[in-house]
Design goal:
Length: 267
């Protein structure tokens, strides 16, 4: 196995275990009592730790796949140390996306009125019900395809170099490549639709024990497919965005590597 393949395998395993650990931590955090002040303080501290680990996992994964030096040498640890300085920037970018998604999704409550208004203005064409349906599907398409396909390339650049407007703008050059759209749609379909079908597939089993095993196996397989598609998507995005950016990313010297190189080898 080459260094590139071993690095991808490490990131896949890290995301598989890390996301599961974060989900478990969130579950136990919800069970924490808050009857006393020290319990509230402990709950707040636990929330900060979970959010920090979540941001670090995301930023480190983005940065690893965005920078060729990390991918070529499988330096996962260095990628995550490098990502520490860009965690706040990625959090701000994620918060902007969340706010925009929330605003767009809330527009679905006004689509019936918009459908009637459009039909009255046109005085022809489809019925208000059909217009409302088309507006809802347009919002869904924007939220689940257009926004991620534009947000993720910029997020990978922010995780690698922070808020650099020119680099962020150059990241969107991948939108001109049909192969990028094909890969994105295929991996989004594999990572969302296939796990959804697995989770909601109910086999005809009469034994309660078999049903429990079936549910656990389907949930685990759906989770593995989701993580695999996510890591593959970030790999495609990182490598293709880097091809569109002619300016190389200059990394700071790694203190850990410098210390290791300064230690003489034993004879």
């Amino acid at each position: 196995m080459s260094a590139k393949h071993s690095g991808v395998a490490k990131l896949w395993l890290l995301n598989l275990v890390g996301n599961a650990a974060l989900l478990t931590a969130v579950y136990f955090w919800l069970l924490m009592p808050d009857a006393h002040g020290w319990q509230v303080g402990g709950s707040a501290l636990a929330a900060v730790v979970v959010i920090f680990c979540l941001l670090w996992l995301r930023t480190g994964t983005f940065a690893y796949f965005r920078v060729a030096e990390f991918r070529d040498n499988a330096t996962v640890g260095r990628a995550f140390r490098h990502a520490l300085r860009h965690m706040v920037a990625l959090a701000v970018w994620a918060a902007a996306l969340a706010m925009l998604v929330w605003l767009l999704w809330n527009l679905r409550t006004y689509t019936p009125q918009a459908g009637v208004w459009i039909r009255q203005k046109l005085n022809a064409g489809p019925t208000p019900r059909n217009v409302t349906r088309d507006l809802n599907w347009t919002i869904i398409l924007i939220v689940w395809l257009i926004m991620p396909v534009m947000w993720l390339p910029i997020a990978s650049t922010i995780a690698a170099v922070g808020f650099r407007l020119k680099r962020m703008t150059r990241s969107l050059r991948v939108l001109r490549r049909p192969a990028y759209w094909l890969w994105f749609c295929a991996l989004m379909l594999a990572g969302a639709y296939v796990p959804y079908k697995l989770v909601w597939w109910i086999p005809d089993l009469s034994d309660l024990r078999k049903q429990a095993w079936s549910m656990g196996s389907r949930f685990f397989l759906a989770y593995v497919i989701l993580i695999t598609a996510w890591v593959a998507l970030l790999l495609i995005i990182g490598t293709r965005v880097e091809r569109e950016d002619s300016e190389p990313i200059v990394l700071r010297p790694d203190p850990k590597a410098m210390v290791n190189s300064a230690i003489p080898e034993e004879l």
